[in-house]
């Protein structure tokens, strides 16, 4: 009897009512992610401004993009920025993680310091660094004068602007990869190191032949994650240099922002954002490929 | 043998000390910009006009902070940021827990297809959807509302992914026992499983709050009216006339004042944040 009641009350496997649990999220997922994604692709085929319904132009926006010197420049700037930041971020945070891979008060405190900049917003980070970079009165200018060098107006020099944005970004972004590396280092079995120690292997060789291979997967994943992140540079460049001088520090995302919300060339901006999406997708697929290959260290 | 071990330990200790010392050196470099800005914020604007060297000797003043308290739109921005970040956090926690429970435990049509589609959403960057989102909210004349600032963040798939993993890790016997006691699906979720996911809720909550608090691009284009600005973009708009009109002392005090709430949260919850980040890292 109770058995019958039970099987009656128990929801059947595969029942639609179970889907009610995901329905609330699904509404937001479709309304704010799936639909905008499709609408964004559609917009990229239209000539569209603030007023009126717009008109279908086919692939014209895309054709225009690839002959637009300013867009090409922003792609080059973004690639250059990735080259400036990603290796530096990965190497510095890897070094810090190795140095702090021990249980002690000092190492805990230092971890806290290295991660602290990561919780700040882009506005505060850039405000701090603009003050550091002030041409004649900033921290760096004072330092340069102290060393007997000529102070440089980092943010207003074409060859330095993006470098200054990169330095700021490295300072801002070091915390997350450090944490990723620390987590990976803690998974390396202690016995491996002890064996190496008994064989009198030097510290450097131990690092090269034991530590690096054991965390190789994390290193590759971190590089990909950082490439994806730094590809999306926007706020730092906009707030520190506004893309200048002469567009030498304008990244792709800022190109999209300017096209959409300064010139209200919505369709054109949508096309540029699809190009950026395609680039990021390639990196994301690489990330998926590596993260699904488990068990290879 | 023990001698060898000793020399080895001494060697390792020396290496570790070298590493720690260089890490301390890096940490000092890392902190220099903070200290520079804090120092300037305690100097009078007029004095800084003559040169920032004066930061190394008194007089110091708290006048810059007082003028923030007296003047400022900063408070309104902080309130807006709080409303938006808390709204996003609560929303994401509820939606992700419900969906994560369903994906981990319940059978329903198209479950695995839906889960894969949601996972694919992880690869969609904000830039790919933000223009269309802006158009949608323009269509409904919804810009400059809290709803517009909160709703887009509720679609992020990361929380659903994290909660699904967490619910999967809970032993099935727990809810099977409850099912035998005739408890409803919702009751099992609410009374039995949800309390067990507290660590995941904390992780997800901290991440979501930080992301909401620091969000830049969406509020920049959606909250264009002065009264709706969040702290992040309010501060950005006020530094447009950088260092000229308001004075370096005031500007630096504003930076410190704006950084303070999140840094205090960070210091208090540091343990949770650190375990949250490393926990998510292992996943």
Annotated CATH homologous superfamily of the largest domain in chain B:
MetI-like
Helix-residue proportion of chain A: 55-70%
CATH class of the largest domain in chain B: Mainly Alpha
Helix and strand pattern of chain A: HHEEHHHHHHHHHHHHH
Q: How many runs of DSSP E, i.e. beta strands of chain B?
A: 0
Q: Label the CATH architecture of the largest domain in chain B.
A: Orthogonal Bundle
* First-residue to last-residue Cα separation of chain A: 55 Å
Largest interface, C-beta closer than 8 angstroms, per-chain residues: A-B, 96 and 98 residues
- H/E series of chain B: HHHHHHHHHHHHHHH
Percent of residues in helices of chain B comes to over 70%
Return the CATH class of chain A.
Mainly Alpha
**Rg for CA atoms of chain A:** 25 Å
- Which percent band covers the strand fraction of chain B? under 5%
Q: How many H/I helices of chain B?
A: 15
Layout of helices and strands:
The complex is a heterodimer of chains A (297) and B (283).
Chain A: H1 2-9, H2 23-43, E1 46-47, E2 55-56, H3 60-66, H4 69-99, H5 105-116, H6 122-133, H7 139-146, H8 161-173, H9 175-187, H10 190-198, H11 203-214, H12 216-231, H13 235-240, H14 252-261, H15 266-292
Helix pairs in contact in A: 3-15, 4-8, 4-9, 4-12, 4-14, 5-9, 9-12, 12-15, 14-15
Chain B: H1 2-41, H2 45-49, H3 63-71, H4 74-105, H5 111-120, H6 126-139, H7 146-150, H8 158-169, H9 172-180, H10 185-196, H11 198-214, H12 217-222, H13 231-238, H14 248-268, H15 270-282
